[in-house]
Design brief:
The structure holds 3 protein chains of 3 kinds. Chain A is built from 12 helices and 12 strands. Chain A is an alpha/beta fold. Chain A has a domain at 7-119 and 208-226: Thiolase/Chalcone synthase (Peroxisomal Thiolase, Chain A, domain 1), CATH 3.40.47. In chain A, the strands form 2 sheets. Chain A has a 10-stranded mixed sheet with strand order 3-2-4-7-1-8-12-11-9-10, sandwiched between helices. In chain A, strand 5 and strand 6 (200-201) form a beta hairpin. The model of chain A has no long low-confidence stretch (mean pLDDT 96). Chain C has one domain. Chain C has 1 helix and 10 strands; from the N terminus they run ββαββββββββ. Classes of the chains: A alpha/beta, B mainly beta, C mainly beta.
């Protein structure tokens, strides 16, 4: 493996995840978050040499929506700035690439999206192929349910198996002060909730939520000075499935397996099971089971031993669009840097972080984080 | 037949209709509601002292909070402008007309407004103008409450006084 | 300049707005002929492309290796359901029915990929593995869209 530049997550801040912030615009939600992230890292804005945001014009309901947040991220004097029309975790990947290219030493990554102002069902329909898939009115909950049914048919997993995973996440989410859904629930209670789109129940899904996030990344030499316990990036890769839902095996996540293989090779990690923490960007329990399958992790919530899976409660307990993925990377940072409070996994040294974009786990990114530098 | 028709469907009409429920945010809500009371609000940067109108929560320059809201005078200077000679859909106004950037006295950024009650050819950079409001009872708390600005007849402002407030 | 005192509580200000995008999308050769087949022939055509087999509905290239072109193959209007999503509360202005219905993926007989569509009736009997058949919009009402197939119905 080629020796790469050591890059670490050194700071993170977020706004509370709420159903709707009626008092602030997206940029106004982000402003105090950027300030808090910089302050937590002991940085001035002038110490940051690159910034990148993840957001969506359709989510925000305005064209060139990213340009409005420049004012609160730092626009003057003119800065190096980029944007991805994706979850902000892909902005973090772009920052990592930029740092590998030697063009940045300290950078911020921001996510924002006023999910409550639009209709996620209508908006995310537009992510689909227009003539055949978007045209029949598919929404993300329905495509997730299609995927869940395909997985259940292949694996034999039943409603209870989903409920047990969901219940485990709800119990974890109850301990996460930065989450949205913070009430534990038993499998029986969740199995009694109505169908959202069958085979997915309302109790298996996150409510609509919104937040703003800001992460600070820095290269070796800077990271150690900024943060007492940086979370070093040991490996990362992302892969995408075929576009048509009916062209791929929805019951599996081959792109996750591929991305993980490459990220693990970069990291020198034998498998996901060898990590202490695994944080998955699954928005429902069927996705979690598919991802566990793709990563060689146990297919049951009751399995003992192995890494802690989704200590944050996962995206099933909070799914603020454009931030959901970056929150997974933040969880990896919090776990490895002793910032996870009551839910902290004792002695955690390596974390596997996953996030997804698009319908039915369309695109998947896998990271490996560690408490020690990978290359020195 | 062993293949689909040669005469293909060339286009699909996709009429997207997306529902939104936009929130103005507290600062813009205060700004718009104040217009109803014939007040123009700005916010002052806690670091540089610069005044932004409409108010912003933080200065884009210093990134410091702009916690203080201030009331601005209704007079200012045309900093830059254009003469519109094409009809714009939905705008019932006789062409040519002038759209200008107006820097209110004491403000460090300018507002956009129409300039009326004078010939388009008479508008120039530095001309002093004042707000003309909708009458009491007709103001709704939106940006149309200021109908337009008109020349005051005061002497022109020197170029240096507004070049940084375009 | 006078300071304006901030009120202790501020009533949120909001505005509902529907944003419309009147797009006219070009279909291209393959999608356009597939849709014409639905409208004019009541036939479902697939395209045999590189490394994917018979793709239904077709694109003008292989999704696997991006090779262009392929051979037209007519597939059956019957097939097997590979995934089911049963919608109990349809979303207005988005979903194709105001009554409970199901989205399905259907692998048509003769196809190697599955088509996304809907089942409107007898949902209690619908599951992965069900045999279904296309029902068509009436003559004169087919517009050259994927909805020219009205739905799929369960075959006993």
């Amino acid at each position: 493996m080629t020796k790469l530049r050591n890059v670490a997550v050194v700071g993170f801040a977020q706004a509370p995840i709420v159903a709707a912030d009626e008092h602030h615009t997206g940029p106004e939600m982000l402003y105090p978050v950027v300030q808090a992230a910089l302050e937590s890292a002991g940085l001035e804005r002038s110490d940051v040499d690159y910034q990148c945001a993840g957001s969506s014009d359709y989510v925000d309901g305005r064209a060139f929506s990213f340009s409005q947040v420049l004012e609160v991220m730092g626009a003057w004097p003119p800065v190096q700035d980029s944007h991805v029309e994706m979850d902000a975790i892909w902005a973090a990947h772009l920052v990592w690439v930029k740092m590998q290219a030697g063009e940045s030493e300290v950078a911020i990554v921001c996510g924002f999206g006023k999910t409550s102002e639009g209709s996620p069902s209508h908006v995310l329909n537009l992510q689909l192929e227009p003539f055949y898939a978007a045209a029949i009115g598919l929404d993300p909950t329905s495509t997730a349910a299609l995927q869940a049914s395909a997985y259940m048919a292949r694996s034999g997993a039943d409603d209870r198996a989903l409920a047990e995973i969901a219940s485990k996440n709800r119990a974890a989410g109850a301990k996460n002060p930065d989450g949205q859904l913070r009430e534990a629930a038993t499998p029986e209670e969740l199995m009694a909730t109505p169908w959202a789109v069958k085979p997915l129940r309302e109790g298996y899904l996150a409510p609509i939520g919104e937040t703003a996030t800001c992460m600070v990344l820095a290269v070796e030499g800077r990271a150690e000075k900024i943060c007492d316990r940086p979370a070093w990036i040991h490996g990362v890769d992302h892969r995408i499935e075929l576009q048509a839902l009916g062209s791929r095996d929805l019951s599996r996540s081959e792109s996750t397996t591929l991305a993980a293989r490459n990220a693990f090779e970069m990291a020198g990690l034998a498998s996901a099971s060898a990590a202490d923490v695994v944080e998955l960007g699954s928005t429902n329990p069927a996705e979690e089971l598919i991802l566990r399958d793709a990563l060689g992790l146990p297919a049951s919530a009751r399995a003992q031993g192995g890494p802690a899976i989704n200590p944050s409660g996962s995206a099933q307990c909070a799914n603020p669009l454009m931030n959901t993925g970056l929150l997974r990377l933040a969880e990896g940072f919090r776990q490895l840097s002793g910032r996870a409070g009551e839910r902290g996994v004792p002695g955690a040294k390596r974390a596997v972080v996953h996030a997804s974009a698009g319908h039915g786990l369309q695109q998947n990114i896998v990271w490996v984080l560690g408490t020690e530098r990978r290359w020195s | 037949m062993s293949e689909p028709p040669k005469e293909r469907v060339k286009y699909i009409d996709t009429n997207l209709n997306l529902p939104y429920h936009y929130y103005a945010g507290d600062y813009k809500a205060l700004y718009l509601r104040a217009l109803k009371d014939k007040k123009i609000l700005g916010s002052r940067c806690s670091k540089s002292g610069k005044v932004f109108v409409p108010p912003v929560i933080a200065s884009p320059e210093t990134l410091a909070p702009c916690d203080e809201l201030v009331e601005l005078p209704h007079r200012g200077i045309v900093t830059t402008f254009c003469v519109v000679n094409v009809p714009v859909y939905g705008r019932e106004i006789e062409i040519p007309y002038v759209v200008a950037s107006v820097a209110l006295d004491g403000a460090d950024v300018s507002l956009y407004s129409l300039i009326q009650e004078c010939a388009a050819a008479d508008v120039h950079m530095g001309i002093r103008v004042e707000a003309v409001w909708k009458p009491d009872g007709e103001r709704q708390g939106d940006h149309t409450d200021i109908r337009y600005f008109r020349p005051t007849g005061e002497p022109d402002a020197p170029f240096e006084s507004f070049i940084h407030r375009l | 300049m006078k300071t304006f005192p901030k009120p202790a509580t501020i009533e949120p200000m909001s505005q509902r707005m529907n944003v419309e995008f009147p797009y006219k999308r070009s279909t291209g050769e393959v999608v356009g002929r597939f849709l014409a087949g639905l409208r004019d022939q009541k036939k479902i055509w697939g395209l045999r492309v590189s490394r994917q087999g018979v793709v239904v509905p077709p694109q003008s290239y292989s999704e696997v290796d991006a090779k262009a072109g392929g051979e037209w193959v007519e597939v059956a209007e019957t097939g097997v359901v590979t995934a089911v999503a049963e919608v109990t509360r349809p979303i207005e202005g988005l979903h194709p029915s105001s009554e409970p219905f199901a989205f399905v993926l259907v692998k048509l007989d003769g196809a190697d990929t599955a088509l996304a569509h809907v089942v409107l009736d007898r949902l209690d009997r619908l599951r992965v593995g069900s045999r279904v058949r296309a029902t068509w919009a009436p003559d004169g009402e087919r517009r050259g869209t994927i909805r020219d197939i009205e739905a799929f119905e369960i075959v006993d």
